[in-house]
Design goal:
Radius of gyration: 28 Å
Order of helices and strands: HHHHHHHHHHHHH
Structural class: mainly alpha
Number of strands: 0
Helix content: over 70%
CATH class of the domain at 83-287: Mainly Alpha
CATH superfamily of the domain at 83-287: MetI-like
Strand content: under 5%
Distance between the termini: 58 Å
Amino acid sequence: MTQDSAAVTITRRAPSRKRSSEEAKAAVTRRLSAPQKIWGDSFVRKLFVVVVLAAAWQAYGQILDNPLLFPTLSDTVRSFFASIADGVLLNRAWTSLRVLLIGYAVGIAIATTITVLAISTRLGSDFLEVVTAMFNPLPAIALLPLALIWFGLGTTSMVFVLLHSVIWVVALNMQSGFMSVSMTQRMVGRNYELTGLSYVGRILIPAAFPSILTGLKIGWAFAWRTLIAAELVFGVSSGQGGLGWYIFENRNVLDIPAVFAGLLTVTIIGLLVENFVFKLIERRTVRRWGMQA
């Protein structure tokens, strides 16, 4: 009688436990509302930040009411589209990007060569430590006078300055990534008898790619701001240039909305590169490989 009662009790309690677990699972996996889904998108949150900053810009410009000091966002946008319509702003932007891409690509190639030598030999490692300690703290803008003396006016001088902005930060992050590769991954390469460039390309670079990507992002940011600053000097000297020269010449004629339109173009290009180019690389590499959440 007791055993039968116990069996009945167990049989009757089992469905309640099953229901409670299903209810708990349903509570955990409940569907999000439409506003929660929208706010969960990082692009929407970033867009919200941009809208808030734009509203603050417009409000401050209207309160100040002095276009020579701080034009409103609406005045800047009108000047921005007017410069695009006549082709001046697009031409200056392409001039800057063309020089930047040359310097950036050459800088990455040199940084990669130096870093591979540094991880291959003790002398190479000592060389990288010494030159980065010497040149990395040196502002790139300080090399402008030397660039003018050595290379004269033109693209070569600009590229020389950009190389200084890119090489050391990329090399440092690349070396840090290579040094952090685990011994297990290194042993895999040795088991497959990989040596030289094949070992670097198949083992070290994929394993260290998060650090390498960080170096590429920082190198891009350094190169972009160095280029604009350099163009302010080279443009004045040579009468030609990109966005930096566009900003300078409009400042000379006190067209401040056009100056802000140039600055806005610099910001937009930076946002596009960071949130589309590098994000795409990140999704196709480190996130796909499970190296980043």
